[in-house]
Amino acid sequence: MEELPIISATTNSTRIKKPDWLRVKLPIGESYKHVRGLVDTHKLHTICESGNCPNMGECWGEGTATFMILGNVCTRSCGFCAVTTGRPAPVDWDEPQRVAEAIHLMKVKHAVITSVDRDELKDGGSIIWYNTIKAVKALNPTTTLETLIPDFRGITEQIQRIINAAPEVVSHNMETVESITRKVRVQAKYRRSLEVLKILKLGGMRTKTGLMLGIGETKEEVIQTMHDLRTVDCDVLTLGQYLQPTAKHLPVRRFVHPDEFAELKEIGYQIGFDYVESGPLVRSSYHSEKHVLNGYGRARWQAEKENK
Q1: Hey, how many other C-beta atoms are within 10 angstroms of the C-beta on 251?
Q2: Cβ-count burial of 102 within 10 angstroms (0-12 exposed, 13-18 middle, 19+ buried)?
Q3: Cα–Cα separations (whole angstroms), residue 48 to 56, 58, 60, 178
Q4: How many C-beta atoms surround the C-beta of residue 60 within 10 A?
Q5: What is the pTM of this model?
Q6: CB 15, CB 9: distance < 8 Å
Q7: Mean pLDDT per 10-residue run, the chain (308 residues)?
């Protein structure tokens, strides 16, 4: 998961000052309160809360949220993530219907669903994933859906369940570059994540991934990762600033300037991505309703270039 709060970073006892471009507004407004009430009433988990997302005020204020299924305790212990690590509660088989009903009550045109990793389950949680997608589609036939999935340990049968459920977009985040994957995503593998995206694409899915910057990678490594993603025909890429959740998590190594994000966005389109979302506060589900639209991002990029 990428959605992390904004705190000042400390590296080798030297505080890195938070730049002005990372300031966000506090959650306010009636729409925000409405979504807050629905989440509480239906006992739903959202990555917005569990990940302390800096965009929660904006997204919830617009009446949208990213739902997190399979509980809010993860079996993995990634060095960047604010979600609790531990022994998860038993699977709640009624959860798919509750998520579907909440999306219906919120009357959203586009919904995002993600989950913790459930490596202790034989099916990796893929059956609940399948049931949730199907329940959401049955109750909300006009709602488009993005699913931000774990790697399911690369098991094809489990990934195939997502393909069979046929959401409009399937996202699996690389999170970082190959050289520091083992440190950042302790139980994950860079090449395995690429393979997951490849399997999804071969299954006919519109695929998406996200990277967080400023955690120790170089710009050259980011560009190489972008090329690696295009070798598996990944459609959508999001790039955002890593923000340290607590003092116990990996520190921010640098705050990436908006100009560098703009440069990487340009490179992304040049090497063939259909949609590139790149900026300091970008998170994987930010503006995701636009990521469903084939050709939209590229057409807008080309129009902007022609108007310069």
Answers
A1: 16
A2: buried
A3: 6, 11, 9, 27
A4: 24
A5: 0.86
A6: yes
A7: 39 61 60 65 58 55 73 88 88 94 84 93 97 97 94 97 98 97 93 98 98 96 98 98 88 94 97 97 85 95 88
